[in-house]
Write a structure and sequence with these properties.
Elements lengths: L10 H12 L8 H7 L3 H6 L7 H12 L2 H13 L9 H20 L9 H4 L6 E4 H6 L5 E8 L5 E14 L5 E9 L12 H4 L19 E2 L10 E6 L2 E5 L5
Parallel strand pairs: 1-4
Antiparallel strand pairs: 1-5, 2-3, 3-4, 6-7
């Protein structure tokens, strides 16, 4: 008998198995009872107030666990959470390949195999842009109240109250660019200062004054929705990269 414990990634397979292999063997009056017996505590709580209406039970389960976008997010997040694999870590590489293949297979079952190859889906959460609330206040930005929602592994929803701002930046050519930003308390740890005197000579034909290494608080994070503004590799020296975007090197 198939079981479902609330892991959102497993819901589509559970529903298919139950409807294909269990339902045909049951009398209609027994279907709701058998479905309940297959559910773990969390999904059972989702349908506990429903009597014996199997259609309503499926509707409630679908609402919580069956959104294809949520399932895709969970699958993709599991892939993205894989840490960087170093040379010689054969076991970790095999595990990553298995996770990738499992993810592609699960997405294909949902008819969402394109999700794994499209930038918009792979970067769904990172596509948002964020601004530190202190910076938004310092710039006197006027925001609109919003509520952000993210689905984590296991289907747990987290809601964050924030504000949406419009921030205007000026690139090196003097062009103004407007970004839609969401306020957040802190984006990441402060960037530590380093001495770049010994670094600048490693790159060819690049004046020292053209190379910038920001330090201190990170005020703004630009998401992949604005990928054109992300740094691109200009030169490399060993493990060092010289990056450039529309705002400088």
């Amino acid at each position: 008998m198939p079981k479902f414990d609330g892991e959102i990634r497993h819901y589509p397979q559970f529903k298919r198995d139950f409807q294909k292999h269990v339902i045909p063997t049951l009398h209609a009056d027994d279907a709701s009872y058998v479905l309940r017996s297959c559910l773990g505590k969390e999904p059972a709580d989702t349908v506990k107030s429903v009597d014996d209406d199997i259609e309503e039970m499926w509707k409630r389960l679908d609402d919580k666990y069956g959104d294809p976008a949520k399932v895709a997010d969970v699958i993709i997040d599991a892939i993205q959470r894989t840490r960087a694999i170093k040379e010689g870590e054969d076991k970790q590489l095999v595990e990553f390949i298995d996770a990738l293949e499992d993810g592609c297979r699960d997405l294909k079952r949902l008819g969402l195999e394109a999700e794994i190859t499209t930038t918009s889906s792979l970067q769904r959460i990172p596509s948002l842009c964020f601004i530190a609330k202190d910076k938004a206040k310092a710039e006197n930005l006027k925001g609109t109240d919003v509520e952000l929602s993210s689905t984590k592994v296991g289907g747990n929803n987290e809601k964050i109250t924030s504000k949406r701002f419009m921030l205007t930046l000026v690139d090196q050519q003097g062009q103004e660019v407007k970004f839609e930003m969401y306020g957040i308390d802190k984006i990441t740890s402060d960037i530590q200062s380093i001495d770049i005197d010994g670094v600048t000579g490693l790159f060819k034909n690049i004046p020292k004054e053209d190379i910038m290494r920001p330090t201190g608080v990170v005020d703004v994070l630009i998401g992949y929705e604005y990928a054109d503004f992300h740094p691109q590799k200009e030169q490399s020296s060993g493990h060092l990269l010289l990056l450039e975007n529309r705002f400088g090197r």
